[in-house]
Amino acid sequence: MKLGNRIREAVDSVRTGLLGGSRLKGHLLRGGTWLGIGGVSEQLFRFARNIVLTRLLAPEAFGIMAIVYSTSYVVDSFAQIGMKEAIIQNPKGHEPSYVNSAWWLGFVRGVGIYALMFTIAPWVGSFYGHPELTPLMRTALLGIVFTGAQSPKAFVALKEMKFKKWTIIQSASGLLGSMIVVLLAFAVRSVWALAIGYAAENLIRCVVSYALCPFRPRVELDKDAVRGLLAFSRGVFGLSFLNLIFSRADIFVLGKMYPASDLGVYTMAVYLVQVPTSFVIGVLSQTLLPSFAQMQDDKSRMNGIVNRVTAILVILGLPALIFIVLSSSSILSVVYGPRYLAAASILTIAALVALVDIINNVITVIFYAIGRPQFHRRCVLVMAVVMLVLIYPAVKQFGLLGGQIAALVAIIAGFASQLLRLGRLTGLDLSQYGRTFPFTLAVSLGVLLVTLVMRHFWSVSNPMASLVSGLLACALTLVVFSKQLIRQVASKPSLNP
User: Fold this and answer.
1) CA atoms within 13 A on the CB side of 386
2) Over the Cα atoms of the chain, what is R_g?
3) Candidate ranges 14-23, 60-69, 455-464; pick with highest mean pLDDT
4) How far apart are CA 155 and CA 146, in angstroms?
């Protein structure tokens, strides 16, 4: 009973103390609820989809599609204009002339990228020794055109914190796209299920965006709107390409050095972590970006929210990381099957990379909200350089695991540079920012200790039993530390820098 009362008090404190300002707070909480419900349902469905697909398709199929996706990101990154972020950040982003100009820029960009990918597809297939990459790329990457044609009014809805529409657009396309992939996998049992499903999901997202956020493009461009979009685009120019180097260099190197089957095992292990990571980052970005955009000049308030959100992420993330470290083999066995057990160490390092990435994203949102995406670009430049320097020697030394070791070093370097930049920009007190970490580390060590003790006295004979013991250890540890945890979560954020 006492624990239940403390939890209710913590929830009430979160509602009253997170952002301050009843209107903004209400928008954020309602929006976060919608994004949470939609995102959780979508990711659960994707998770179930992957369980089915790894039993229907060979690992080689996932390796080949990883090359397709990564190659498309190369070209896509050069033409990135940041349309969604530009509409949300700009005070005039909701005006018809601005929205119309954004649509034309995005659509022309999508068509141009697809035309280029269509042309270079045979070369990519020849380079990797997989001729089937040519038709696969030309089919799957139709999704780029559909993405470019998406209704920009959907981004306006996000700017105005109408999260219900955005959630339906994203979740409906994800759910229906996943269903199509699974049905195709049952029918054709080949990589074509993944290629067609990727294009179909983006087509569905485009259609649903117009159904919920109607828009009719006009054959005219507003010069001031175009200048505003291009000005923002200059701030993000090169950002996507640098981010590509960080996030995809491992795929390019491993795809050349290892068989597609090994690349598929590696890719699916990393993807197992990236699915929940993408969900958390998506919710954070879509709720915090419009919120921070409304308080651009209130640095102390932004600092308070950064400390608050980071504390919650660390408190939830570190114990989860310990659980993955102890149960990686069991997780892969239950989710994907025994063919993927070799990727247990890869999953462990990928989980740590994901945790740092999520925490770093809170700072990234601030840079976008105040119209300074170039600050984040410097962070990604650091990550890209570190990745380029380390990826080949790391893979030569540690094999497949080297891909994630290089990524870990790179994300830590980028996070450190971005945190220091935020300190200079807003006056963030770094000692206050980091005070949650020691306490949460103690909780995480408690999870580790309880798990080891339980497994010493309780013989774990199968992967499912191992997962259950790990989850029970997490639950027991959280109960022991419940009072301290609630105090950490429920405390109001400081409004002082």
Assistant:
1) 24
2) 23
3) 60-69
4) 15
**Residues, the chain, total?**
497
The CA distance from 465 to 469, in Å, is: 6
Amino acid 55: pLDDT? 85
Angle, helices 436-457 vs 463-480, to 10°: value is: 130
Please write down the HEC assignment for all residues of 286-330.
HHHHHHHHCCCCCHHHHHHHHHHHHHHHHHHHHHHHHHHHHHHHH
Does residue 409 contact residue 352 with C-beta atoms inside 8 Å?
no
Do residues 79 and 109 touch, judged by C-beta distance below 8 A? yes
Q: What are the Cα distances from residue 254, in Å, to 19, 71, 265, 401?
A: 44, 14, 11, 10
Determine how many CB atoms are found less than 10 A away from the CB of residue 338: 10
CA dist 147 and 158 (Å) reads 16
Nearest to 263 by CA among 358, 142, 384, 133: 133
What is the token pair recorded at 346?
């890869």
Handedness of CA 376, 382, 385, 390 (dihedral sign): negative
Exposed e or buried b per residue across 455-464, where buried means at least 16 C-beta atoms within 10 angstroms of its C-beta: beeeebeebe
Say which residues have a Cβ less than 8 Å from residue 188's Cβ, sequence separation at least 6: none
198-210 burial, b at 16+ Cβ within 10 Å, e below that, comes to bbbbbbbbbbbbb
Please give, one letter per residue, the 3-state secondary structure of 265-290: HHHHHHHHHHHHHHHHHHHHHHHHHH
Task: State which amino acid sits at residue 42.
Answer: E
Q: CA-CA distance, 480 to 493, in Å (whole number)?
A: 24
pLDDT for residue 156 is more than 50: yes
Nearest-angstrom CA–CA distance, 361 and 376? 10
**Burial status of residue 394 (CB atoms within 10 A of its CB: 0-12, 13-18, 19 or more):** buried
Structure tokens at 126: 């020849």
Q: Name the packing angle between helices 260-293 and 299-335 (round to 10°).
A: 150
Phi and psi, residue 218, nearest 5°? -105, 145
Lowest mean pLDDT among 86-100, 204-218, 251-265, 446-460: 446-460
User: How much is the average pLDDT of 188-201?
Assistant: 88
pLDDT band at 387 (very low <50, low <70, confident <90, very high): very high
Q: Where are the domains of the chain?
A: 1-24+258-497, 57-237
